[in-house]
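Design a sequence for this backbone.
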C-alpha cells in the first residue's frame, strides 16, 4: 500500500495557485508563514497587476486567501450593487463605513431581488409583509447619502404606472441635491412600470392606496401627482445643471422616442429627458423604448443612440413651450 501511495501523481493545482501568489502548503500552527509572491512584489506593482483583472476575476481572486481579500478590498468597493446587506454594511457603524469615500459607481439591485423591508432592524422580529415597491425605492435612493464621491450611477426600479410621475420626481429630487451630482459622468435610469404589485395601484385607486403607505414612504413620494403635465412642471422646476455628465441612458416602457417628440410636439414621458437639457458635456444618450400597447398602439422594443443635436432641439422646444 505504501508503494502504491508513492507512485500517485500529485493533485493538480488550480490556475491561481499555480501562479504562486499565495502559500498553498499546509503548515502546522505556530509555523512562521512564508511570504507569497504577491506579497514580495512592490505594493504599487502588485496593485497594477490586480487592478487590471476583469471584475469577475477580481472577485474570484479575492476569495483565494485573506491576503488576496484584503489587498483587493478597495478595488472591489469602487463599484457596488446596493443590496440589503450592502446598505447595512455602509451605514453608520457598519463594517464598511470607513470605506464610503472609495465608492465610485453605485447600482441599484435588480427589482426582482427587492426586499419588502430593505433595512429592517434586526431586533424587531417578524413584521407584516409590505409591498416592497415604494419602501425599497426610498431606501435605495436615500442610501446614496453615504457616497459623496460617486461618478457613475445606475438607477433601476419598478413602480406602478399610476405612481410613475411621483416616483421619478422623488428620485430626481433626492439625487440632484447630492454633492456627487455635480461630478457624475454617467447616469442611467431603468424604469419598469407594472400594475402587478401587492396593492394593485390604478389611477382610480391611487389615492386610497397612497394612504396605505407608511408615513416615511408618503413623505418620500411627496404630494400626489395625477397628471403628466404636472410632472413636467415639477421636474422643470427641480432640474439643476449636471456639468460633468458625459453619458446617459433612459430605459422606460412607452417613453416617447426623441424624433416622435420633435415631430408631434408631444409625447409620453418627456420629463425623463429634462435632466439632460442642462448637461453641456453630454456626448451620448441611449434611449431604450420597451414594448407598449398604450393609446398610441403596440410598439416594438427599440434602442437608439440620440444625436445630441436632437436633444438640444428637444430642449429648446420644451423650454420654449414653457416660456410661452
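Sequence:
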Amino acid at each position: 500500500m505504501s508503494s502504491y501511495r508513492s507512485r500517485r501523481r500529485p493533485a493538480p493545482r488550480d490556475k491561481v495557485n499555480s501562479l504562486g501568489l499565495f502559500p498553498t502548503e499546509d503548515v502546522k500552527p505556530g509555523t512562521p508563514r512564508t511570504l507569497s509572491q504577491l506579497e514580495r512584489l512592490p505594493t504599487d506593482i502588485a496593485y497594477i497587476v490586480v487592478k487590471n483583472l476583469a471584475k469577475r476575476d477580481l472577485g474570484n481572486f479575492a476569495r483565494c486567501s485573506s491576503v488576496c481579500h484584503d489587498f483587493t478590498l478597495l478595488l472591489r468597493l469602487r463599484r457596488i450593487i446596493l443590496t440589503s446587506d450592502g446598505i447595512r454594511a455602509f451605514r453608520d457603524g457598519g463594517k464598511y463605513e470607513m470605506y464610503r469615500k472609495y465608492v465610485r459607481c453605485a447600482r441599484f439591485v435588480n427589482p426582482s431581488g427587492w426586499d419588502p423591508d430593505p433595512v429592517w432592524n434586526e431586533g424587531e422580529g417578524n413584521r407584516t409583509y409590505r409591498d416592497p415597491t415604494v419602501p425599497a425605492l426610498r431606501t435605495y435612493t436615500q442610501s446614496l447619502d453615504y457616497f459623496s464621491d460617486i461618478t457613475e450611477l445606475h438607477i433601476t426600479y419598478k413602480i406602478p404606472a399610476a405612481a410613475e410621475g411621483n416616483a421619478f420626481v422623488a428620485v430626481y429630487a433626492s439625487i440632484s441635491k447630492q454633492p456627487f451630482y455635480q461630478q457624475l459622468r454617467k447616469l442611467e435610469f431603468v424604469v419598469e412600470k407594472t400594475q402587478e404589485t401587492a396593492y394593485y395601484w390604478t389611477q382610480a385607486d391611487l389615492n386610497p392606496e397612497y394612504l396605505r403607505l407608511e408615513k416615511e414612504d408618503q413623505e418620500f413620494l411627496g404630494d400626489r401627482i395625477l397628471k403628466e403635465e404636472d410632472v413636467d412642471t415639477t421636474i422643470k422646476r427641480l432640474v439643476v445643471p449636471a456639468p460633468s455628465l458625459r453619458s446617459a441612458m433612459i430605459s422606460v416602457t412607452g417613453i416617447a422616442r426623441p424624433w416622435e417628440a420633435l415631430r408631434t410636439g408631444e409625447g409620453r414621458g418627456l420629463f425623463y429627458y429634462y435632466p439632460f437639457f442642462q448637461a453641456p458635456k453630454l456626448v451620448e444618450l441611449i434611449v431604450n423604448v420597451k414594448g407598449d400597447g398604450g393609446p398610441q398602439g403596440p410598439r416594438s422594443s427599440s434602442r437608439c443612440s440620440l444625436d445630441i443635436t436632437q436633444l438640444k432641439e428637444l430642449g429648446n422646444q420644451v423650454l420654449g413651450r414653457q416660456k410661452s
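The first strand starts at residue 79 and ends at 82.
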